[in-house]
Each structure stands twice: as C-alpha cells, then as structure tokens.
C-alpha cells in the first residue's frame, strides 16, 4: 500500500525478554493481515523476520527486522527486535523510530529483566505502550498473575483490554473487552470473525470491562460525565479516548493470545490501529532543522553481496529514489537510489515514502547508523542512541597467519551493523580484542566472520592488564663499562626510586634531575630517563608495566672519550632494575564495578559465588521479584562470568560492569601470577 499521509501509519517495535514469542507474534500478524500465505515458525526457520542463517540455527533473533502490513486501511510498520542482552543495539535503535511498542511478556514467566529494561527505555522516550501476554497455552501460564505482575513491576496504569477464554492447554480463545466480542483459537489457521462472548465468562468480563472503562473515562472528562450518567458508551468513543490516553502515556492496554497459533491477532491489530498514535499525532523528537527532506538511519545491514543497506525513517518528506541528500556529519552528498520497503529479507521498490514511514536504500557511501541526512546542510545534532557499553572482551586471532587484514575488514563491517561490537588493540598486551555485550554476541560475530567473510578466527580469554608499582624508597648505582679494543662504553648513574601517589586515580611517572656539579653532562641525562622508561615497560614481577614511580637521578660519572647516550641508557635501565627489587614492588589489578540482576531465589547462590571470586558486596536492591546486586570484583575473576551466571539463574540473570580502579593483588594470588610469569619466561627461553 502506498501511504501518502502520516496519519495512516503506525510504527511499532515488538520488544521484550528473550524467547517470549516476539518473532512468532510478528509472523502471526503478517499472516492474519494476509501478507503471507502460511504461518511460519521459528523452529522450522520459516519466519519472515528471523531470516538470517545464524538466527535460524540458534532459533533466536540476532538483529532487528523490519516488516509491514495493512490493516483497516492503515499501514503498520513492525520492527521485530532481539530479546537477548547481547543484541540490544538494534532494539534501542528501533525505539528511536517508532511511536509505539508492543511489549511481549511470557504468560508463564511474567515480567523478565529485559522486558523491564525495554519498558524503561520506552518510558524515557515517552513511547506509547501495549502489553501482549503471550504463550497462554503453555502449562502454568496465568494471564491474571502476569497482569498483576505488569501492574506491580511495569506500571499501575496497565489495564486488561483482552481476556483469555480458558487456560493452558484448554485455552480456546480471547475476549476483546473494547468491542465486546470473542475470537476463537484458529490453531495456526486464519483467525475467524468476532463471536459472541461465552456466557460462563459473563462475570469476569463484566468486572474487567468496568475496570477498563473506569480507566479510560478517568482520562476524558466528557466521557466521564456520560459514563456517570449511566449512558452506554459506544466502542468508537471509548477507542478514541483510549488512543488519547495511550498517546499521552496515561494508559497501557494489556492484550493476550498465543502467537504460535495465531490467536489474538485480530484484536491486537485492531488495538494497534485504534489505540496507538500515528506519526502525525506523536511525531519524532529527532532534529532536522528546516530541511524539506530528511531521513534518520536507524539500522545498517552489511550484506556481502548487495552491499550496505541502510534502514531509515522519513523525518521530512516525501522522499523518493532520485533524491540527493547531504550527511552533515561528513558533509558528503549521498544519492538515495531506489527506495525499498523491507519484509524481513525481501524488499520491494516504492516510488516514495511519506513523513513518518520506514524504508531502506542500498549502497549509501559513508552513512552509519545514527546519521541524519538532510536536503541542505543544516546544523543538526544527530540523536544520541545510548548504546550499552561492552562488558566483555576476548582476544581474537585469525587461524591462518596473514588473515589479519581480512579479519579486521570483516569486523569493521560487523561493527557497522552492530555498534556494540567493538574491536580494539590492547595497548598493554598488544592483543587484538573483540568486545561486546555478551559471550554469545562475540561468538555469533565469529560465526559470521566465517560464513560471510571467509575467515576462521579463534577466541581466547583476554589477558588481565596488570600493572606493577613500588611501596618504598630505594637506591641503586650501576656502572656500564666496556673497554675491549676500539672505542669503549662508559656510563655510570645513581638513582633513587620513590613511590609516586596516584593523581585522579591515575598512576604516573616522574623523572627528576638532581645532578649537581655536572658529574654527568646535560646531554647524557635524558638517556638515563629513557633507559629507566624502557625498563619500566616490563616489570620484574609479572612483566607488567611499572607505574607510580618517581625517579631521582642523584649522582654519576662520565668518561671523556667512552661515554655515550647508549651507555647511559643501559646504565639507567640496569640501575632501575636493581633499585626496583629493593623497593618492595607489588602487583596491581583492575577492579570492576559489577551490577548483577537476578531472580530473588538466586540471590544466595550468586552472592556466594561472588564471594569466592574475591568480590566485595556493595549493596542489594530488590524490586518486583528481581534483585540488583552491586559488587566490586577483580577483573581477573570475572572474565568468564556469563556462563556461571547463566547456570546459577537458569538464564534469567543479567550483568553489566565497568572499570573502577587499580588495587594491589593479595599476596597469595600475586604469588601464583608471578610464578606463572616465571614459568612462561623460562619456556620462552627454551
Ligand atoms: N506454546 C507456545 N509457544 C510459543 C508461543 N509463541 C512463541 N512460541 C515458541 O517460543 C519459542 C520462542 O519464540 P520466538 O518467536 O523466537 O521468541 P522471540 O521473543 O522472538 O525470541 P528472541 O527474538 O530470541 O528474543 C519458539 O519456539 C516459538 O515457537 C506461544 O504463544 N505458545
Ligand atoms: Mg525473535
């Protein structure tokens, strides 16, 4: 459908915790709206939105997928987002281009971590929200329990707009409380038309219909007056007031169904059309100045065959294929080329897209996710998408020598698709590091390097960036002397080491020239400094860089013929090594600030485990069945935390961390690291 008015569009992200049935729901909505001829499934890898081979193999969404359908003369754009914590970049980006979010909850598990997180994001961006309680056919599913959980944990303004008929494997349909009708379980076929509500449900339907009306009229004075007068309110008037309330974030309707059987899709589609605002009503907060045409790129697909595909939202338009826009970030002109509508992996060309619509173009030159393109240079501030910071790193090496460049190119392309997947070189260890939000995200990147970019790589746990420092003052003198034929070498210096206190948490280095009477000429003194610095690059304890040291050059001697810069450098380096051993050197390790979010019943196990990882508990905050634990933990102990947390919490735990400061490694631990280094050095010598 070619839409020409933003009022006829609904942009909706489908979001929520991992595996609650978002992709299945999008599949069912497309099927019910007649966009597909059969209901695909995630298990068989036949869904429209999980089209990538890695998604199909792992049976989970790994990136956002753009789909569209028509319902009641409206175009609904759906963005199916991944629920796994490792793949939240696309989820957060999608939330920047929609007016509404369908937050999907499992009828069994209720409100899970990532659903709360998405809810919070949506709240920050004032997005309208509809809750869909899915999987009501499963054992131990309970709509009313989940409704209550949503009211407790998401918002007290959640109100049921649909009810299930029956429960678990005896679930037979859903009731639409707005239109007062029922839809029966189509068992994977097309959902039939509205049916009368079964008599036996009269009481519970009455109760929840009243709750719904109470909630809606409370937001609309005129309706309230009519309601109090005892007037029967027609669905149209209630729907209009509901939409206003949803638009203003005053109400969150709770729908329900079974995505895998296509139950509940008619009522949900009606609700999305009637209850969720269009771009004309709610609009975007993204800046585009006085541009007549503007688009915001919210997603990039790095396809090795068709090239780069950029998905965008039209901010000002219409926008058609022959348009040339400019990217204020690079000042480069970008010709759009054919404008496309995406349906999962398929695309269809369209003439133009109106304001508020979502589409894509291929082969833009230098555009990255997050850019705004405009018809003339206007100073726009691209919207900041607050992507989560990477929490874990792996050292990554190509299996075949010589594949370094191929690996780097592939990783750069993957980073275009997913900005939370970051490649960098560890300045301390020299290792190439790949960082991300979860181990799975990094593993998927490795799979993609193989299948898309033809390069096999290996992951290794990264080395901990230890440091070394000294605890007390010491002094040493070294004379470097060689006089065997020809020109000799002579350098002699005496230095004093002092601990240098950290400044703003940073350990530094200072070299102080205390030479009096010119016992070493001015020109040789910097060579001593150089020698010391070189020696400090690899401390004697564990080969880690030495920091937090002040070096005073106090005395020395030179030879009128044999002295050279080289000789003083060596003397400085040797003097440092001697003094260092006497200065009570210690090993330092990075301490991380960790935040773990776990179900209440796992708190004991997780705390015990953190304890065994030398963690220090800072605090606990329980909230609605989940507890957030804050702790300081040495990085070395937490390199492979994700597997442990998954097994302790049955996959329901989640964590994030950031660097805090360096601290001395406890003696018994340091001893092991020092011995290990010694062994490695000896092996390297052999
Ligand atoms: N019994 C039952 N199973 C469902 C229902 N909806 C989805 N499933 C199944 O649940 C599993 C996960 O469904 P998905 O649609 O992939 O869930 P998702 O939320 O998209 O998952 P991620 O994208 O990985 O977060 C699949 O095996 C589905 O077939 C439902 O309503 N009832
Ligand atoms: Mg999915």
Give your account of this protein's structure:
- The protein has 686 residues and is of the alpha+beta class.
- Helices cover 28% and strands 30% of the residues.
- It contains 16 helices and 33 strands.
- The strands form nine sheets. A seven-stranded mixed sheet has the order 2-3-1-4-5-10-6, with helices on both faces.
- Helix 10 (404-417) packs across helix 11.
- It is elongated, with a radius of gyration of 32 Å.
- The relative contact order is 0.09.
- The mean pLDDT is 91.
- Magnesium ion is lined by residues 22-23, 50, 61, 80.
Distinct ligand kinds? guanosine-5'-triphosphate, magnesium ion
How is the main sheet built? 7 strands, mixed
- Tell me the radius of gyration: 32 Å
Low-confidence stretches: none
**Coarse structural class:** alpha+beta
What is shown here, in short?
The chain is an alpha+beta fold and 686 residues long.
Descriptive keywords:
16 helices; 686 residues; 5-stranded antiparallel β-sheet; alpha+beta; binds magnesium ion; binds guanosine-5'-triphosphate
What are the SSEs and their pairings?
Layout: E1 9-16, H1 22-32, H2 53-58, E2 65-71, E3 74-80, H3 88-94, E4 100-106, H4 113-124, E5 128-134, H5 143-153, E6 158-160, E7 162-165, E8 173-176, E9 181-184, H6 202-217, H7 221-228, H8 235-247, E10 252-256, H9 265-275, E11 294-303, E12 307-316, E13 319-320, E14 324-327, E15 332-335, E16 339-343, E17 346-350, E18 352-353, E19 358-362, E20 372-374, E21 392-398, H10 404-417, E22 422-425, E23 432-436, H11 439-453, E24 457-460, E25 467-470, E26 474-482, E27 489-499, E28 509-513, H12 525-537, E29 549-557, H13 565-582, E30 585-599, H14 603-612, E31 616-623, E32 626-634, H15 641-649, E33 654-664, H16 667-685
Parallel strand pairs: 1-3, 1-4, 4-5, 5-10, 6-10, 28-29
Antiparallel strand pairs: 2-3, 7-8, 8-9, 11-12, 11-20, 12-19, 13-18, 14-15, 16-17, 21-23, 21-24, 22-23, 25-30, 26-27, 27-29, 30-32, 30-33, 31-32
Helix pairs in contact: 10-11, 12-13
Bound molecules: guanosine-5'-triphosphate (GTP) and magnesium ion (MG).
């Amino acid at each position: 459908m070619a839409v020409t008015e933003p009022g006829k569009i609904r942009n909706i992200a489908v979001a929520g915790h991992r595996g609650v049935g978002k992709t299945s729901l999008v599949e069912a909505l497309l099927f019910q709206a007649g966009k597909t001829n059969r209901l695909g499934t995630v298990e068989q890898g036949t869904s429209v939105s999980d089209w990538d081979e890695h998604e199909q193999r792992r049976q989970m969404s790994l990136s956002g997928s753009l789909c569209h359908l028509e319902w009641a003369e409206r175009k609904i754009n759906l963005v199916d987002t991944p629920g796994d914590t490792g793949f939240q970049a696309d989820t957060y980006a999608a939330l920047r281009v929609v007016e509404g979010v369908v937050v999907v909850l499992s009828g069994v598990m209720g409100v899970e971590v990532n659903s709360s997180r998405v809810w919070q994001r949506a709240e920050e961006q004032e997005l309208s929200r509809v809750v869909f309680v899915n999987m009501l056919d499963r054992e131990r599913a309970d709509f009313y329990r989940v409704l209550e959980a949503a009211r407790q944990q998401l918002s007290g303004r959640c109100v049921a707009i649909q009810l299930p008929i029956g429960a678990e494997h005896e679930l037979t349909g859903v009731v639409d409380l707005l239109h007062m009708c029922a839809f029966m379980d189509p068992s994977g076929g097309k959902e039939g038309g509205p049916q009368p509500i079964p008599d036996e449900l009269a009481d519970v339907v009455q109760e929840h219909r009243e709750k719904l009306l109470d909630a809606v009229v409370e937001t609309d004075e005129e309706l309230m007056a009519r309601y109090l007068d005892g007037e029967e309110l027609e669905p149209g008037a209630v729907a209009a007031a509901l939409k206003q309330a949803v638009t203003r974030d005053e109400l969150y309707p709770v729908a329900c169904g079974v995505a895998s059987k296509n139950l509940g899709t008619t009522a949900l589609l009606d609700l999305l059309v009637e209850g969720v605002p269009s771009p004309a009503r709610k609009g975007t907060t993204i800046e585009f100045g006085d541009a007549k045409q503007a688009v915001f790129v919210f997603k990039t697909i790095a396809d090795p065959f068709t090239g780069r595909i950029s998905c965008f939202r039209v901010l000002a338009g219409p926008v058609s294929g022959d348009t040339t826009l400019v990217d204020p970030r690079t000042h480069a002109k970008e010709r759009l080329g054919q404008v496309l509508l995406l349906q999962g992996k398929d695309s269809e060309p369209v003439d133009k897209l109106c304001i508020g619509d979502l589409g894509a173009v291929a082969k833009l030159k230098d555009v990255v996710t997050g850019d705004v393109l405009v018809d003339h240079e206007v100073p726009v501030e691209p919207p900041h998408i607050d992507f989560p910071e990477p929490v874990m790193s792996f050292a990554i090496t190509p299996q075949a020598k010589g594949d370094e460049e191929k690996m780097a190119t592939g990783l750069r392309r993957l980073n275009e698709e997913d900005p939370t997947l970051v490649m960098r070189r560890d300045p301390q260890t020299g290792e190439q590091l790949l960082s991300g939000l979860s181990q799975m995200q990094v593993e998927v990147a490795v799979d993609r390097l193989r299948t898309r970019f033809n390069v096999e790589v290996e992951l290794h746990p990264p080395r901990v960036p230890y440091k070394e420092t000294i605890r007390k003052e010491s002094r040493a003198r070294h004379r470097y002397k060689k006089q065997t034929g020809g020109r000799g070498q002579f350098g002699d210096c005496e230095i004093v080491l002092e601990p240098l206190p950290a400044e703003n948490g940073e350990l530094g280095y200072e070299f102080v020239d205390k030479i009096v009477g010119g016992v070493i000429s001015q020109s040789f003194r910097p060579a001593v400094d150089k020698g010391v610095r070189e020696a400090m690059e690899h401390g004697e304890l564990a080969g880690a860089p030495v920091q937090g040291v002040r070096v005073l050059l106090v005395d020395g001697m030179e030879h009128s013929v044999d002295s050279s810069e080289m000789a003083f450098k060596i003397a400085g380096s040797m003097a440092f090594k001697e003094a260092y051993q006497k200065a009570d050197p210690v090993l330092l390790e990075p301490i991380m600030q960790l935040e773990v979010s776990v179900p209440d019943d796992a708190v004991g196990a997780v705390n015990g485990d953190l304890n065994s990882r030398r963690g220090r508990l800072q605090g606990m905050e329980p909230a609605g069945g989940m507890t957030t634990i804050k702790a300081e933990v040495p990085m070395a102990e937490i390199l492979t935390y994700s597997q442990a947390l998954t097994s302790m919490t049955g996959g329901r735990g989640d964590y994030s961390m950031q660097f805090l400061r360096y601290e001395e490694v406890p003696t018994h631990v340091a001893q092991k690291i020092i011995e290990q280094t010694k062994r490695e050095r000896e092996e390297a010598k052999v």
